Amino acid sequence: MTPRLFTSGCAVVLIGVVWAMPMRSVKAQGPYVGTDAQRESGKQLYGKYCAQCHGDKGDGEGYATPHLYPRPRNFTTGKFKVRTTPNGALPTHQDLVNIIRRGMPYTSMPAWPDLTDQEVANLAYYITTFSPDFTNPERAPKPVELPSAPAATSATIEQGKKLYEETGCTKCHGTLGRGDGASAPTLKDDFDHPIRAADLTQSWTFRGGATREDIFRTMSTGFNGTPMPAFVDGLSPEQRWAITDYIASLSGSEGPGYTNLVVAKYVKEPIDMAKGAASFAAAPVAHLPIVGQIMEPGRAFHPPTTSLSVQAIYDDTSIATLVRWHDRTAEKTGQNGPSLPVAPEEEEEGGGAAEAAGGSPFGDAEVAPGAAQPAEKDPFAEAEAPAVTSEFSDAVAIQIPSETPATARKPYFIFGDAENSVDLWFFDLAQAAPVQFTGKGSADVAPKDPTDVTGVASYANGEWSVIFKRPLRPASAAPFSPGEFLPIAFSVWDGFSRERGSRRGLTLWYSIYVEPQNVPSAVGPMIRTALSILAIELILVGWVRWRYGSRARGELGDPSRPAATHA
């Protein structure tokens, strides 16, 4: 054998060995699912971080599952919502990596920024072991073409608005994108579980991400198992980008802009509630996050309302607060109250009127492996009346301390405590006016009579607007005084989700500041201070120069004086 033949033969053998090594460790012939070592590493991480929700078998039946909405993903079905692949296809490895790394906003699925890239990759490999589809060569995922984002312009936004209406997006997402379309209360996933249309005006809550690229990807590939279709074949890339631009424009900002202060502005004219929100035009908007009440029995782990907007004004005698939040339906019948009981078993069941019939309102419930696939539905079919209605109405409440706090200590934020009660303004939106309670804890909420709170409420285009009005200095409650702060908190009940009593969304304690009628301008004091400092500096410089000059003249002799003579 010549040296050249020997070298060539070794090279062939070496190449064969290199290719054979990884192939021996791959679990099956099909989409690459990592090595045995990678999957084993992923299994350890999964048991530490994921099994509590997704279950040891990956079936979404962890011990935390009864308290989670949407339900954790059932990996055994091979159905994943956020993908770069066509509707119905498996996700790519990178799709799984992205979801693990970013999490799912406003759900129980957190982001994992502290895991290394290799750890996230190993987790993704291990997740593929739960579904045999990942080892099927015929199901190897192939991403769709997702072109780079062009520049958004006013023209593309206007074109997108037109397409948004023509394509039928309004039927689910509503005219203004608030998730209140005519079909919204009737939406169900492939397995007859009720689901909720996304509120397109709050991009920070989008499950697959809020960037234009994320929205375009969702428009192109849809969400597997939900009525959200894929438009990759139905619309051109230009049309999909136009709708993307319009959806991106609905939020108006990249984030919610949460704050911790409500500023009440003085108005000269007496507050007229008949003018509605127009009276609050000069008041700044405070955007506050809503979380579920989970401290007391009757818990709401994931209330449908995620935030509310607050504005406040006051005149010479009264203060008024405007509270607004998005709600896909207005429950104006039935009843509600801060003390209505919630059966313990409902805390385990979660959800709303639709869930009482056996489903999740978030539409993420999974189907058992092997279950029959239902017939494809038309997501744009005309809306039907909700099959199940709630006996509970929508409601909202404001609470402030009964007395102005003398220290930093506030009442317990869930309706106060025995030592520090709260003044609760409660508006059952099936009623014409609000009522007032004194709260000393969830178990001790008593009606207050007479009440000195009035109010009006309206609902339009998926949004509640509720105005509370109360005297600045009532006979028996904490006064609102210009120039001072007072703690304030809010609660919201969604009747469709059977929220009442302790089962509700609420805020933490925030502050309301009653801005004085005349706010001194800072410009005058700033100018006076600057001139004073300048004058002091000039005087100091002049004095130093004079002293230096005097010393110099003393050392050289004053030429104006005759020189001294010595005998």
In short:
With 567 residues, this protein is α+β, with helices and mostly antiparallel strands.
Task: Tell me what the structure shows.
There is one protein chain. Helices cover 25% and strands 15% of the residues. It is built from 11 helices and 14 strands. Strands 1, 2, 3, 4, 5, 6, 7, 8, 9, 10, 11, 12, 13 and 14 form a 14-stranded mixed sheet that branches. A hairpin with a 2-residue loop joins strand 10 and strand 11. Helix 2 (36-49) crosses helix 5 (117-127), helix 4 (93-102) crosses helix 5 and helix 8 (212-221) packs across helix 9 (237-251). The radius of gyration is 33 Å and the shape is globular. The N and C termini lie far apart (124 Å). The model is unreliable at 5-28 and 350-387 (pLDDT under 50).
Annotate the secondary structure layout.
Layout: H1 3-25, H2 36-49, H3 51-54, H4 93-102, H5 117-127, H6 154-166, H7 170-173, H8 212-221, H9 237-251, E1 261-266, E2 286-289, E3 291-292, E4 307-314, E5 318-326, H10 344-349, E6 395-401, E7 422-428, E8 435-439, E9 445-447, E10 454-460, E11 463-471, E12 485-493, E13 505-506, E14 510-514, H11 523-556
Parallel strand pairs: 1-4, 1-14
Antiparallel strand pairs: 2-4, 3-13, 4-5, 5-11, 6-7, 6-12, 7-8, 8-9, 10-11, 12-13, 12-14
Helix pairs in contact: 2-5, 4-5, 6-9, 8-9
Region (Disordered): 330-381
Pfam family, one: Cytochrom_C
EC number: 1.97.1.9
Number of strands: 14
Shape: globular
Contiguous helical run count: 11
- On the 0-100 scale, what is the average pLDDT? 86
Helix content: 25-40%
What is Rg? 33 Å
Q: Under CATH, the topology of the largest domain is which?
A: Immunoglobulin-like
Strand content: 5-15%
Distance between the termini: 124 Å
Low-pLDDT residue spans: 5-28, 350-387
Structural class: alpha+beta
**Total number of domains:** 3
Pfam family, one: Cytochrom_C
GO molecular function, one term: metal ion binding
Enzyme class: oxidoreductase
Protein name: Selenate reductase subunit gamma
